Amino acid sequence: MIKFQHAGRAPLWRRTAIAAALSMSLAGVAMAQSNASGTIFGRADEAGATVHIENVDTGLTRDIALDSSGRYRAASLPVGRYRVSLQKNGQTINTRDNVQVVVSTGTEISFNAATAATGAKNLEGIQVVANALPAIDVSSVDSRTVLTSEQLQKLPILNNVNAAALLAPGTTGGDSRYGNAISMGGSSAAENQYYINGFPVTNPLTGLGFTSLPFDAIDQEQVFTGGYGAEYGRSTGGVVNIITKRGTNTWKAGAEVLWSPAKLAATQRYIYYPVGSHRVTDGKVLFRPNDKLTQTQVGAYVGGPLIKDKLFFYGTGEFIKNTGRVQYGTNNGTTGASTKTKDDSNKITRWMAKVDWNITDNHILEFTGIGEDSIQDTVIYNYNYNTGLQGTLRGTEHQKNTGVANSTPGGQLYVGKYTGYITDSLTINALYGRSTADHVDSVAGASGGVCPNITDNRSNPSRISCAPVGGNLLVPGANDKTHAWRFDVEYHLGSHTLRGGLDNQTLESFSGRATQGGALWTYFDATDDFSTVPGMNIPPGATEVAQRTIFSAAGKVKVEQQAQYIEDHWQINDRWLAYLGLRNEQFKNFNTDGVVFLKQRHQLAPRLGLTWDVNGDSSFKIYANAGRYHLAVPSNVAIRGAGPQRFENQYFVYTGVDPVTNAPINPTPISSVFFANGANGQAPNPVTLAKKGISAYYQDEYILGFDKEIAPNYTVGAKAIYRNLKSIIDDFCDARPFLAHEAAAGTPITNPAFTEWETNGAPCLLFNPGRGATFTIDHDGLGTLKNVTLSKEELGYPDLKRKYLALNLYLEHQFDQKWYGKVEYVWSHNFGNSEGLLLSDIGQQDPSVTQAWDFPELMIGSSGNLPNDRRHQLKAYGFYQITPEWLIGSSLLVASGRPKNCLGIPPTDPYQYGSSYFYCKGQVAPRGSQGNMPWTYTLNLSSEWRPAWADHKLAFSMDIFNVFNQQKAQNRVETYQLGSGAVSGTYGRILSYSAPRTVRLGARYDFSL
User: Fold this and answer.
1) Most buried among 148, 275, 295, 369, using CB within 10 Å?
2) Is 632 within 8 Å of 506 (Cβ atoms)?
3) What is the DSSP string of 646-711?
4) Cα–Cα dist 543/523, whole Å
5) Which contacts (CB < 8 Å, 24+ apart) does range 535-539 have?
């Protein structure tokens, strides 16, 4: 909410808030604007007049003559505050102040009789004209939410981009095993795209996460949840588009401190094993959650003119430190042999610098630099749940830009952009940028170096790994690089606004994982069932055996993505506008040898839209749109499927166990070496990796809605959304259809990679699930290639299905110099047999190569409510200016719980996938048939005091997140059985709860120099 002060004394950033709030959600007309700028357009009844447009903060001006029909249009304007005047014969006839240009939107400013200004007021010395902006956007066909910097400061939300994006309808938090990722419109959390100043910052390896920036650097955050135009692509979820702040003609600076003390935070809920688990020492506790931590954030900014009206600078940075975090975890289920992890240092550093150069009023250059690094150092100790005592040092771990599921890209990016207003009707934009990011995950044992991992699966486990952390480690030297460029041309011709452009980007990564310490040793009782292990021969008298697993998959990979688009915004008449767009995309994936193994060309994506200004006065709009949206295959697929992957297994007996490492002494092989899915360390022939003529990943979407003004400042609306995922790319690893087809043809396959599928698995190939396909395979294992065409029936998979139905209702109160508020309800249904790029059922972190389609038996019972199905969502947020000194705000997020599954082992488990089937308690258990997780309720409150004695420049704030400490279960372990077939002691165990109550205290000072 905005504070009203004496003109000339309030800081400029506070006065800007009036314009932002007045225009928020009022006049976003989506008429061929750039994804990093906006448009002002309209009409006037004065023949021969000119419209003068001036940015009141930077002095940038444009003069646009009215055309023969009295219309004008100024495209590609930098976001910010403008003054728009109608001039004739050197005289100003009429003026509109506080015109806010919003990213990717058009703002209608007309000077005809119907919109003549009356009743002008004065706020903080700025002339505000009543009814200068229409109450409803009568021309947009998309679904968007735009949050300004003022809203982001006034609303009680965490200081991160996704926390703000969750205010948009149809967005929900993704599985906690994917970090801070979000799902939009029923899509998986890896199907969104993020931009900063027009440059793509999405994680180039997996699509999970993005490079972020100082939260206070955000001028506007735009969230598209559907219906976006041909300018955007590479997303079947949503788009988050961020525009940063920039310098103005006034030097401004400020600093802020935010402090979330542990003493004011609620205790996190404990996570328990189910009653009766043999791994529980006291019958209850499995895992003590993170102890309460203290977070301290310090930030500062400065901006202003290097040359007035010409050259501007803006710089900002923030530093975040978390202290006091302690984690407790089990070590392979061994009683009394767990770990205690102390977070010695968790630091995040972010910065941004921006230079804007108005060479002339017709030529603009801007340069942006952004950096982000997240560093975490931890110390790990042994811990005994029986005694509650910390044990000996296990080792240390150092991480940089990793995060959960590698969802923290970090790094640095540099972007340059040119805008040229060639004529009143012709505008061009050109952008080029590069980003780089390094990733580190290194561990060391208590005595230095690394140890092999140890897992103890014996009936009485007791062996502890000396490795400080388990699993596979990121390879040294991991990094990501992105370079992107785009060129856009816009031309206004009569009732048509034509726009087209090129949009290219190249994503490169060196990444992968390898077994920590060189090997994973897993101990078993010799009486376990090893009937499927090739060459297994357990010596008489042996009581236990050990399996050695060696895994490595790493390499340098690349994806090239190109696109061309054209669109036309056709103003049919004063009440009807049609949008026609077409996007053509090409994707190429390269393997670790730099050879193309996956290519899609001419992926045509039409976009259509229509709006009707029913009453002709922007008080009632009906709109509809339809579109197709494509998604490229992430580059991580090349590492897991197209590179020299090694997944080696062998069994041993031994003479003893090393007392320090717990690794076997003098291991003697008792089985053959076998490779899971044929991963023997050799890179596969790229022509054998995917079906011939593979189709791209794409989705169709349809939206129908209306917006209506029901009273001054009050707007209601509704829209219905239907999304249908038509094609995906995933892998399958089933040799049987190839063997059967070739045997029937009289040309049996002799390649051991196929014929020995029962012991080694089979090669995994990329395909379009639910369709027939032609594959090129190595027929004899000697390099003899042959095309084999398999029908849909031979492959045995069901049709792909992922559908999303939603009904969105909202009520919004526009800012009236006192308060703003919005309430939104979404009913939705997300169902089918595929989540998309991810598999949240088990938290699998391999986008586009999930186990879901590995062989047909896994798909039995797979159709049902998908993991991102939140049937009901209620979101309400707003702020209220009690007095010029006091402001309060609130946000409420309510959502129904995620569907629950039961994954077990059916009577036939052909590929020994264990508890991975929709089969439970002796029968098929369809997806989502086990009920739902509980509803989540999160109420956040905020208050801010700007004392008059400090000229309202000093602010003290307090935010309370999750006021009622509603810690609800978000996800759980869904695997019902152990490999032996026994019921798992972890089935149903909660994996995460919603965050506990925390309190954030803040102090901020802003001033003009």
Assistant:
1) 148
2) no
3) EEEEEEEE-SEE-TTT-PEES-EE-S--EEEEEEESPPPPGGGSB-TTPPPEEEEEEEEEEEEEEE
4) 11
5) 535/671, 535/672, 536/651, 536/670, 536/671, 537/670, 537/671, 538/653, 538/670, 539/653, 539/670
Residues 6+ apart with CB under 8 A from 221: 146, 147, 152, 161, 164, 165, 240, 241, 242, 243
Cα gap 144→934, rounded to integer Å = 29
**Token representation of residue 925:** 């258990």
Burial 23-56 (b: 16+ CB within 10 A, else e): bbbbbbbbbbbbbbbbbbbbbbebeebbbbbbbb
Report which secondary-structure segment, H or E, holds 164: helix 161-165
In this structure, are residues 157 and 48 in contact, taking their beta carbons and an 8 Å threshold? no
Which residue type is seen at 188? S
Q: What is the structure's pLDDT at 985? A: 78
Q: Where is 100: in which H helix or E strand?
A: strand 91-101
**Rounded CA separation 371/595 (Å):** 32
Q: Give Dmax over CA atoms of the chain in angstroms.
A: 107
Of the candidates 172, 257, 161, 148, which has an alpha carbon nearest to the alpha carbon of residue 212? Answer: 161
Residue closest to 74 by CA, chosen among 26, 109, 49:
109
Q: Say what the pLDDT of residue 337 is.
A: 52
What single string gives the DSSP state of each residue in 346-357? EEEEEEEEEEEE
Residue 865 amino acid letter = N
CB of 924 closer than 8 Å to CB of 864:
no
The pLDDT of residue 787: 97
Q: Which two tokens stand for residue 829?
A: 């249904």
Output the pLDDT for position 36.
75
At position 708, the amino acid (one-letter code) is: K
Query: What's residue 34's pLDDT?
Result: 60
Q: 451 vs 32, 329, 330, 445, 698, CA distance in Å?
A: 58, 19, 18, 7, 44
**Predicted pLDDT of residue 470:** 75
Contact 638, 589 (CB under 8 A): yes
Closest by Cα among 772, 790, 520, 474 to 639: 474
Tokens 């003893």, located at residue: 656
The parts of the chain modelled with pLDDT lower than 70 are 1-34, 113-135, 273-291, 325, 327-338, 343-344, 385-387, 406
Q: CB neighbours of 870 closer than 8 A, spacing ≥ 6?
A: 172, 828, 830, 895, 896, 897, 898
CB-CB contact of 318 with 215 (8 Å): yes
Integer angstrom CA distances of residue 421 from 57, 247, 500: 19, 21, 16
Residues 6 or more apart whose Cβ sits within 8 Å of residue 615: none
- Residue 472: C-alpha distances to residues 90, 177, 394, 776, 1008 (Å): 73, 16, 17, 32, 52
At 115 the pLDDT is 44
Q: What CA–CA distances, in Å, run from 31 to 27, 194, 422?
A: 11, 21, 19
3-class DSSP assignment, residue 22: helix
Name residue 576's beta-bridge partners.
612
CA pair distance 868, 187, nearest whole angstrom: 7
Rg (CA), the chain: 30
Q: Are 198 and 36 in contact (CB under 8 A)?
A: yes
Distances (CA, A) of 429 to 35, 349, 492, 623: 11, 32, 15, 29
How far apart CA 439 and CA 459 sit, in angstroms, is 39
Please say whether the dihedral angle defined by the alpha carbons of residues 922, 923, 924 and 928, taken in this order, is positive or negative: negative
Choose among 674, 669, 675: nearest CA to 537: 669
Residues 6 or more apart in contact with residue 740 via CB below 8 angstroms = 794
